[in-house]
Amino acid sequence: METKTTIPKIQSLAIVLILAFIFNILGGSFISLYITNILSPQEYSHFELTINYASIIKISLGYLLNIILSIWIFSQSKRQNENSISWTALVLFFGLIAVLLFYVSILIKEVKRLNKNLEEKVPNT
After folding, report:
1. What pTM was estimated for this model as a whole?
2. What is the distance of C-alpha 65 from the center of its chain?
3. Is residue 2's pLDDT more than 60?
4. Is 1 domain-assigned?
5. How far is residue 96's CA from residue 24's CA, in Å, rounded to a whole number?
């Protein structure tokens, strides 16, 4: 019998979400802090355009992350028999928060289903 050592899906999802969240929040901040701390005011004025480009890149990567997460949630919601269009739109506009809400809603439905199955198997006294 072959055994595979893989990270469960929920743990890999958590790792991806945490890394994306950290990148989304801190990405542009570190670039701005680094440039403003190493440059004199005269040099800083020359690099103002670079800082603007870094901000544009950070915002663009945030939108790209939302688009990728939307595509992923679309396929996941189809598998879970959820309203895929609504979840995709939520993730597109609200990003990681909507992904977390999606998985919380799936978890709540699964718990309700398990409770219902348990009640059917164990008769009430």
Report:
1. 0.59
2. 8
3. no
4. no
5. 10
